[in-house]
Amino acid sequence: DGSRDMRHYTSSVIREIRQEHRMQIGQLAKLSGLHRNTVYRVERGDDISVLNFEKLLKVFGYELEIMKCKD
User: Fold this and answer.
1) CA 48 to CA 14: how far, in whole Å?
2) Which residues contact 16 (CB under 8 A, 6 or more apart)?
3) Is residue 58 over pLDDT 80?
4) Which of 9, 36, 37, 58 is 20 to 30 A from 26 in CA distance terms?
5) Contact 38/30 with Cβ under 8 angstroms?
6) What is the DSSP string of 2-65?
7) How many CB atoms lie within 10 A of CB 23?
8) Nearest partner of 60 among 31, 26, 25, 30, judged by Cα
9) CA-only gyration radius of the chain, Å
10) Contact 27, 42 (CB under 8 A)
């Protein structure tokens, strides 16, 4: 299912980047302005809004970009 694949992808991306930066979940939550439980749930694979995904990425200097698919 596509939504499950997307949840797995977003959780993996956030967890891997956070671990590369040796950052604790609580620290990421504080810097992103999100609740610690939200970050925990994202890393667990729960649904995440695009806005919250962008907030988490921004902490590490990343941004979400949407591109048109090539036919």
Assistant:
1) 11
2) none
3) yes
4) 9
5) no
6) HHHHHHHHHHHHHHHHHHHTT--HHHHHHHHT--HHHHHHHHHT----HHHHHHHHHHTT----
7) 15
8) 31
9) 12
10) no
